[in-house]
Amino acid sequence: MFKHQKIHQLDDYFVELSNRENKGVYFYRINVYTQEIGDFIKRYYEAARLAGVIIEGKIPNPDEKNLSYYSEIMGMNFYMNMEFISVSLKKWLPRMNDYQRNNVAVSIYNTLGDLQKAGKNENMLKNAYIKFMCWLYYKFERIVNLLGQEKVPKILYEGSISNYELLLISVLCHAGCDIVLLQYQGDAAYLKLDANSSFSYEFKIDNATPFPSDFNLKWIRQQIQNDFANARLYGEKPKYVNCTNAWITGEILEDIKQNVTVRGKNDAFFYNCFCIMNGVKDKITYMNELYQLQLELKNNKRRIVIVDDAIPAPSNEEIASIRRRTYTKLDQMLSDLVVNIQYSFNIELQRLMIKAFLDVLLEEAKKPQMNINKMTNKAVYMLCWLKRYQAELFSSWKMPQISCFILMGGCKSETEALFLKMLARLPIDVLILNPNLNIKSTIYDKLLYEVNYETSMNVTKFPKENADIKLGTVAYHAERELDTIMYQDSGLYRNQQYQKANTVNLQTMYEEIKILWNEELKYRPNFLITDDIVNLPVICAKVSGVKNSDITSYWISVKELMTQDTYVIQNVPFIESTAYNPLKEHTTEFFKNGKLQKNKIKNHADYQYRFLREEMQEHMLDKLQILINQALIKGTFQNGTEYTVVATALNLPKDILRLIQKFDFTKKNPKIIYINTGEKASSLEDSILIAFLNLIGFDILSFVPTGYQNIENYFNKELMEEHQIGDYIYDMQVPNFATLSLNTRPKSWRDIIFKRNT
Fold first, then answer.
1. Fewest Cβ atoms nearer than 10 Å: which of 94, 170, 535, 594?
2. Distance between CA atoms of residues 63 and 664, nearest Å
3. Do 174 and 151 form a contact (C-beta atoms < 8 A)?
4. Three-state SS for 639?
5. Average pLDDT of each block of 10 consecutive residues along the chain (758 residues)?
6. In angstroms, what CA-CA distances link 177 with 1, 100, 143, 537, 621?
């Protein structure tokens, strides 16, 4: 439980919890206005918008639909004790950790106790409790898992608060949340509820006046938007400006070698170049010229980054490091994402990065039919790449130093093009080499200087040491060009077109699972392809209970999900911990220093996946590395469980491997149905199997009519979405699905009325 403390100044609200006096939270009501208060409200509004809740007017009372859903999930029982409240919160608001849940439970219990002392009967207490629970779910669910964190979540309430609203907000305050009440009409109405100011403090300040007649949160939002527009997102402008290409002669390789100190004399500019060379001037000398370029740059102590073929897509870890949300507006997206650009070693360089990032994306947004989701994905990739390369490009940077970024193989994607355009607005020479004229670069920029030669040369690697050149025939290149035209950004996909994919677990209603189950991935929500990496929207859910206690319909509904791509597990545990695994004794060779030893795995005599497509082998091993890195399985990096993870993932059953072999990332994905009707516990290996297949791209459904914990026992975090569909039923026998008829489902009243199946 947290106590609300007094502040010394309004800025105390923005101090992190550990730095506060007695680690307290703040609950104040503001009844008067000054410019300082206006600025504070604007800042507090932004904080509440990002990590909190803003209430304009009343919190709506739970309606019939809300109460019906609550009743379906929780029932209508109520007991005035801590254990009941705590258990209920765990089920109703599962995102809270134990510490948060205990604080909320104690606070609710104490509040209900005060109501009881005030003469409220049990039925009144029950009504208050249900109202609190509904409000927590429908209004405050987004912050319950933030309560008590270092960055204290905020609630901003505008208007005249009611008694029960005050009680619940006080509950959240004691659970670790800051509160501000804006009362434009003064304090009189509030003091009728809390005459002694027990729940909150009144903020007092000298020279205050009543709130202006037009002051409200809508006005605050407009002010914020105006500030945003005026500043154009940039913050403080950088001191330096790029002078790109104005100084070059046109002999690109020679221009890049030119010492930065002689490129120009205006201290307000940094002098860089941004060029693309299509084709080669001379096949015989081309590779040697590039090799000499690299040597001279290094001899001159220029920082240099060379990328072959394409900039590697960000890893899951890189993407996860970018703070982001779901956006509906461009300005909202940019203002949120730009805070990811941090370079504390040189604030001037940080400002240059911010300006370049915003310049490029705002220009991109002017294109017709701009899609905010695609823009967000591109922006996240740009930020990932900037983080990846900034140390290598800018270590100990100071004016007028110029780094060098070279991309060999042309610019093939729109996201790459945006990133290169951003780099070209920084103190970096950006050189794009596209020796193969059959490859069309996608980049266009008003700053870009283009040199075109007639001779084509099939080179994909920059000659850092030696070059191994391969030449393709005219027919080969013609086929590749046709392939690009037909299958790039057309909505059409050839078989096995994509080799890399990431999964995202869909949050669905239970009724939606049947609809989505047999859909091709490309038709599911959130399917996306960015830079040849497929975003796979998959189902990963646990179904607890039996709807209407109708066992026959229950098994029929399970059978209806058994497609030709579905593997059914009905004997638990599926993988016994003692089962023979020929790879178990070799796992210490396969996993060292936190990394899978892919070559050792593939070359081992007991490696079982070498018959699979090479790209699928790589996909599986990449996901195995991610599974370990995430430490999703309990015991990973603690008691050697990571070796069990490796052994299990490399010993999949043959039938599952066959499903993986034919898996096409744009079509129907393979599926696992895991049935546990009894009280036998799932094994650690079962949990590993499910987590691994989820990352590969399988749909996962776990049917548990008992509602017991099973697979999730071994997860460090919530992986499976749980659907409570009915009563818990025990000792059910799994039927013979081969003989189970889909026509034996009992007729509904609708079937009877409309004489269906007669």
1. 594
2. 45
3. no
4. coil
5. 92 94 93 94 93 92 94 94 95 94 95 94 95 95 92 95 95 96 94 94 94 91 71 78 92 92 91 95 87 89 92 93 89 88 89 92 85 92 95 90 94 93 95 91 91 89 62 47 54 81 92 93 89 90 95 94 94 92 91 92 92 93 94 92 95 95 94 94 95 96 95 92 94 91 63 50
6. 11, 11, 9, 34, 43
pTM for the full model?
0.42
Specify the residue for token string 């086929």: 479
Residue 494 · residue 479 · CB < 8 Å: no
Contact (Cβ atoms closer than 8 angstroms) between residue 441 and residue 237: no
CA distances from 8 to 21, 204, 425, 663 (A): 10, 11, 44, 62
Q: What distance in Å separates the CA atoms of residue 168 and residue 192, rounded to the nearest whole number?
A: 17
> Please, are residues 107 and 101 in contact by the beta-carbon 8 Å criterion?
no
Neighbours of 256 (CB within 10 A): 22
SS (H, E, C) 679-725: CCCCCHHHHHHHHHHHHHCCEEEEEECCCCCCHHHHECCCCCEEEEC
**Which residues lie below 8 Å from residue 217, measured CB to CB, with a gap of 6+?**
45, 54, 56, 156, 158, 182
CA torsion angle 699 703 709 714 (round to 10):
-30
Q: What is the DSSP string of 6-64?
A: --SSGGGGGS-GGGSGGG-B-EEEE-SB-HHHHHHHHHHHHHHHHHEEEEESPPPPP-H
Token digits of residue 316: 């899951």
Sign of CA dihedral 650, 652, 655, 656: negative
Measured distance CA(649)–CA(72) in Å, rounded: 38
Helix (H, G, I), strand (E, B) or coil at 460: coil
CB 403 within 8 A of CB 394: yes
Specify whether the CB–CB gap between 477 and 438 falls below 8 A: yes
DSSP per-residue string spanning 186-223: -SHHHHHH-TT--S-EE---TT-BPPPTT-SHHHHHHH
Distance, CA of 380 to CA of 648 (rounded, Å): 33
Chain centre to alpha carbon of residue 594: 23
| Burial of residue 28 (number of CB atoms within 10 Å: 0-12, 13-18, 19+) | buried
φ, ψ for residue 561, nearest 5 deg: -90, -5
Strand partners, 278: 434, 452
DSSP β-bridge partners for residue 721: 541
The neighbour count for residue 25, using CB atoms within 10 Å, is: 23
**Sign of dihedral through CA atoms 368, 373, 378, 380?**
positive
The first and second tokens of residue 492, run together, are 């059409």
